[in-house]
């Protein structure tokens, strides 16, 4: 028999507040792409060339790589929500230093510090959302992280565009400083949110754990049968892992979890190799290369691109728990490959490269071809937003056992940032040297993502976190795997009966 309806209003609120961490990530990611196009910024920082621009951009991701790895032991020690607080505080320091930077060295160092905070948040927010979510809406709740990222990117575009009209260094300092505000809002809000019930059980704080579950699932009723059953599921699984599972980093790579860590790292690697951050980091330059003229046109086009990114993430939030992770990934990879192939073909056939100062641009005698390139880029972003944008974060946060979830998720998140760093560093140089070939390369990567998903990534929708072992104990070929019955009770496997635990907490 299926569980009674959960108290979804509360769990949505908690997940949404945690998602402010995603907003910080998106804002900091998005504002630099437009700041790099500001004449006042470039003049103040001694006209950085494409290599130095890529360093300024990519140093954030280097900090994110380190921060995401550091978040695992931190979150296991002090808890998921306190780790969100620590990440937010680090982000505030980095943002303040970026705002006050007086030379390239200080700017790069401050972006590394800001990246440490973003790295912590990018790992811990989806992990926290996963651990508070009921299985039937887990994909939707964790997708709120990606939705907040897209809103952050959109806000950064338009705020930075508006500030570009200001005279003096305030034109770039103001958008860098504004990002401190949501971080300061997040800290007090997350402090009044509940702890992860799974983290509480892992620390033997059982009374608190069942009270949190009751608050999230049953309006505070600790004796609700589905609350007691979920508590027992979590408790028995954690006890089983303590007795029989090595939760060290070495075991993640060499034991029965090796397949899952490879899949988790693979999906994060492929998410970056879709090329999404090539567009998000360097969109004004990309739209200019696609044939847009004028100082403001590429910036406005990027603002519209950000709005499209937000709107097209909404369908993923709505359907990820209905049609599943696997179908969304397959459809997304196929469509992204198609749009990139069209963009590359149009640029090769109708584009003529030319040197515009330090930049390599393209001219299009055929204006329809230029519009086709721009449309193809928009459609690529829409396809990514509706598929691989949210699903990579959802998948990695849900496939690992409780004892290693933080460690493994930090590794997969660090993989995302490592390849993000590579994309941010290589893209501007590649755009200069091979122009349309960049899009053909990303087309091939998306084709690889399509094949890998079909072969290796099993469906995980509606599967309890405590039942993921059953999914990955089957064939390595994803198309042969049968999903466990999500409604099947695990009472026979529990060492503590529901009746017993109901009586134990009746007096709370």
Automatic annotation (TrEMBL):
It comes from the Eukaryota. This is Uncharacterized protein. It comes from Spiromyces aspiralis. The lineage of its organism: Eukaryota, Fungi, Fungi incertae sedis, Zoopagomycota, Kickxellomycotina.
């Amino acid at each position: 028999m299926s569980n009674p309806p959960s108290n979804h209003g509360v769990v949505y609120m908690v997940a949404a507040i945690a998602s402010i961490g995603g907003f910080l990530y998106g804002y900091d990611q998005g504002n630099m792409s437009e700041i790099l196009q500001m004449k006042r910024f470039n003049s103040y920082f001694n006209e950085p060339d494409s290599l130095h621009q890529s360093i300024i951009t990519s140093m954030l991701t280097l900090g994110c790589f380190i921060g995401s790895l550091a978040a695992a032991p931190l979150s296991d020690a002090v808890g998921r929500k306190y780790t969100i607080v620590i990440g937010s505080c680090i982000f505030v320091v980095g943002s303040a230093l970026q705002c006050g930077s007086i030379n390239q060295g200080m700017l790069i160092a401050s972006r590394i510090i800001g990246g440490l905070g973003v790295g912590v948040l990018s790992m811990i927010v989806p992990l926290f959302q996963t651990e508070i979510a009921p299985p039937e809406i887990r994909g939707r709740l964790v997708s709120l992280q990606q939705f907040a990222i897209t809103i952050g990117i959109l806000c950064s575009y338009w705020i930075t565009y508006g500030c570009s009209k200001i005279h003096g260094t305030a034109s770039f300092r103001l958008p860098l400083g504004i990002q401190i505000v949501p971080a300061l809002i997040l800290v007090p809000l997350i402090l009044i949110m509940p702890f992860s019930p799974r983290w509480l059980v892992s620390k033997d704080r059982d009374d608190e754990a069942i009270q949190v579950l009751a608050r999230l699932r049953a309006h505070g009723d600790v004796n609700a049968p589905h609350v007691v059953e979920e508590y027992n599921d979590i408790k028995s699984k954690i006890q089983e892992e303590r007795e029989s599972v090595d939760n060290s980093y070495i075991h993640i790579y060499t034991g029965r979890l090796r397949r899952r860590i490879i899949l988790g790292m693979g999906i994060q690697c492929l998410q970056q190799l879709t090329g999404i951050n090539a567009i998000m980091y360097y969109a004004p330059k990309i739209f200019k290369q696609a044939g847009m003229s004028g100082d403001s046109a590429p910036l406005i086009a990027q603002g519209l691109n950000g709005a499209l990114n937000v709107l097209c993430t909404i369908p993923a939030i709505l359907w990820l728990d209905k049609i599943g992770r696997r179908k969304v990934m397959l459809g997304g990879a196929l469509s992204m490959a198609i749009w990139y192939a069209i963009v590359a073909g149009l640029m090769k056939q109708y584009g003529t490269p030319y040197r515009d100062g330090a930049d390599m641009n393209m001219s299009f005698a055929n204006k329809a071809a230029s519009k086709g390139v721009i449309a193809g880029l928009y459609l690529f972003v829409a396809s990514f937003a509706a598929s691989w944008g949210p699903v990579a974060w959802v998948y990695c946060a849900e496939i690992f056992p409780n004892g290693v979830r933080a460690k493994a998720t930090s590794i997969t998140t660090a993989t995302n940032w490592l390849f993000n760093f590579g994309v941010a560093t290589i893209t501007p140089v590649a755009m200069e040297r091979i122009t349309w070939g960049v899009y053909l390369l990303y087309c091939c990567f998306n084709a690889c993502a399509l094949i890998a998903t079909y072969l290796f990534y099993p469906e995980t929708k509606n599967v309890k976190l405590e039942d993921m072992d059953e999914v990955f104990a089957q064939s390595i070929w994803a198309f042969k795997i049968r999903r466990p019955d999500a409604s099947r009770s695990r009472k026979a496997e529990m060492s503590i009966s529901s009746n017993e635990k109901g009586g134990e907490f009746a007096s709370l």
